């Protein structure tokens, strides 16, 4: 029978972590690290927490890499747009 005081997260599957937003994964990772730092978990609980933390850290990295790619694409689009108009707009003659 499971101990109600057992704080070990359920075995992490890629599916449940894959559905988390960056903020959700980060917040849960902070909680997991805090529990590990307390040092009160059993060895089995610590291993489960460590595995969960690894999965959460990978998820955060995926989000950050995706955000970097989007920023790079936006910068490249802005540079190519401004390079196309580098001749400058023609200004009307002032009389």
- The CATH class of the domain at 14-75 is identified as Mainly Alpha
**DSSP summary: helix tally:** 3
Mean pLDDT: 84
CATH architecture of the domain at 14-75: Orthogonal Bundle
**Unreliable stretches:** 1-5
Taken in chain order, the helices and strands follow as HHH
The structural class is mainly alpha
Number of strands: 0
End-to-end span in angstroms? 91 Å
Which fold name corresponds to the CATH topology of the domain at 14-75?
Helix Hairpins
Note the beta-strand portion: under 5%
Describe the structure.
The chain is mainly α and 95 residues long. The protein has a domain at 14-75: Helix Hairpins. It has three helices and no strands. α2 packs antiparallel against α3 (43-84). Residues 1-5 have low confidence and may be disordered.
Features:
single chain; 95 residues; mainly alpha; Helix Hairpins; rod-shaped
Task: Describe the secondary-structure layout.
Elements: H1 14-18, H2 22-38, H3 43-84
Helix pairs in contact: 2-3
Summarize the structure.
It is built from three helices and no strands. It has helices spanning 14-18, 22-38, 43-84. It has 95 residues and is mostly helical.
């Amino acid at each position: 029978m499971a101990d109600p005081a057992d704080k070990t997260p359920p075995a992490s599957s890629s599916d449940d972590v894959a559905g988390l937003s960056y903020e959700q994964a980060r917040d849960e990772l902070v909680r997991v690290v805090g529990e590990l730092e307390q040092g009160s978990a059993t060895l089995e609980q610590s291993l489960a927490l460590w595995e969960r933390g690894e999965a959460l850290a990978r998820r955060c990295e995926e989000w950050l890499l995706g955000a970097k790619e989007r920023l790079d694409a936006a910068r490249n689009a802005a540079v190519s747009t401004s390079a196309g108009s580098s001749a400058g707009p023609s200004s009307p003659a002032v009389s």
